[in-house]
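Re: weekly structure request thread

Next one in the queue (151 aa):
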Amino acid sequence: MIKINVEIDNKSWQKKIKNLKKYFYKKLKRISKIVKFFKGKKITFTILLTNSLKMKKLNRKFRKCNKTTDVLSFPYYPLKNLKVIKDKNIYIGDIAVSYEIINLRSIKSNFSKEFDKVWIHGLLHLIGYNHVSDKDYFKMNKIEKRILKSI
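Done, posted below.
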């Protein structure tokens, strides 16, 4: 089971997605059946739905990068620790997502589809996936596509 804490500091999110808890619940239920890491555990994470200005501040503070971005992930555990945790009840970290970037991308697509791409990307970072090397990129991209098809 995956539990999500949703924090909203930009009201525009609620205009695009009416019932965020229900929205996530349905998708997380499916994801928990696909991703091995989630099986048999009670996983919790937080998602901050914010704006580009806040994302720029977070990016500057935590990544020393003075620009906005679509999604940031803040894993609670380093990958090596995450792999050996025996506890079944785990808080895996935080994700922040920018409304403006998702909204801009959705002009050519669909808001929910673009949103799903980035928060799922962020969620995978919380459980140890990355895209530092080509091999890691292809591995992460494969699971992202599989998840997106299923939800």
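Helices lie at 12-16, 20-34, 52-63, 79-84, 99-105, 111-126, 134-150. The chain is about 50% helix and 20% strand.
Next request, please.
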